[in-house]
Design brief:
Radius of gyration: 17 Å
Largest sheet: 4 strands, mixed
Distance between the termini: 36 Å
Order of helices and strands: HEEHEHEHHEEHHEH
Shape: globular
Helix content: 25-40%
Strand content: 5-15%
Structural class: alpha/beta
C-alpha cells in the first residue's frame, strides 16, 4: 500500500497546474529516457485524453490468487478491486503511471477536480489507481517500449507472464525507449543491472553540467 507522497499530488495535479498547455509529458523520477521525448509527446492522437502503457508485470496477479492487503477493502482479489473500486473492467487495460502523456485540451474540469478530491480516499497504488479510475476507457496505449519496468524482482515477475505479454516485455527490455527502475533499491542507491550504469552515467553528466 502506497502512502500519499508529495509526488503523488504533483502527478494528479498536472491537469490543473498546466491547464493552459495543450499537452504535457509526465515522467516519474526513476525513468531513464533512451529515445527523443518529442516522439513521446506526439505519440497519442488529438482525441485521446491520456497516453500510457499497460502495467505488464501486474498482469499475472489477476489469475495467481493475489489479494490486496487487508487494510484495502478487506483484502479482495486484484480483479475484484480493479472492477469494483476503480471501474477497470478489464485488468489487462490497467495502465502504469511512470510515463504519461496528458492531453490537457481533452480533459474536463470535472476530471481535473476528481484527481484532487480522490487523494483523500484510500487506494492500493494511490495516484496510479486514481488515474485509472478517472481515465479508464479514455486511454490511448502508447508503445510498450516507452515504459519498460526494470529492477529487483522484474525478471522473476516477467517469467509468470502469459506468452504474448512475455514477448512484448522481452522485446521492450531488449530495446527500451524509456527504462522505469521500479521497486527498490534504485540505481542511485546501489542496485546494479542492465541500464543502471547508463542512468548513473547520465546523472553524473547532469551533476557536472549543473554543479
Amino acid at each position: 500500500m502506497d502512502a500519499t507522497y508529495r509526488t503523488t499530488f504533483y502527478s494528479l495535479a498536472v491537469p490543473t497546474l498546466f491547464a493552459n498547455f495543450s499537452r504535457i509529458v509526465y515522467l516519474s523520477d526513476d525513468i531513464l529516457l533512451r529515445a527523443c521525448p518529442s516522439l513521446l509527446y506526439y505519440s497519442i492522437p488529438a482525441t485521446a485524453q491520456i497516453g500510457a502503457t499497460r502495467d505488464l508485470l501486474l498482469i499475472p496477479a489477476q489469475t495467481n490468487g493475489f489479494r490486496l492487503p487487508q487494510a484495502i477493502a478487506g483484502g479482495p482479489p486484484l480483479v475484484d478491486y480493479h472492477c469494483g473500486a476503480l471501474g477497470v473492467l478489464d485488468s489487462n487495460n490497467y495502465f502504469q503511471n511512470g510515463v504519461l502523456v496528458f492531453n490537457i485540451a481533452e480533459i474536463s474540469q470535472a476530471q481535473a477536480e476528481d484527481c484532487g478530491h480522490l487523494c483523500s480516499t484510500l487506494f492500493w497504488m494511490s495516484d496510479q489507481d486514481i488515474l485509472n479510475r478517472i481515465f479508464y476507457g479514455k486511454v490511448h496505449f502508447i508503445h510498450q517500449n516507452w515504459n519498460v519496468c526494470w529492477g529487483p524482482g522484474c525478471v522473476e515477475a516477467s517469467e509468470t507472464l502469459p506468452a504474448e505479454w512475455k514477448k512484448i516485455y522481452d522485446d521492450g527490455l531488449a530495446n527500451p525507449f524509456a527504462v522505469h527502475f521500479s521497486g527498490f533499491p534504485k540505481p542511485w542507491t546501489g542496485w546494479d543491472g542492465p541500464y543502471a550504469e547508463d542512468f548513473r552515467r547520465l546523472l553524473g553528466d547532469v551533476l557536472r553540467a549543473f554543479p
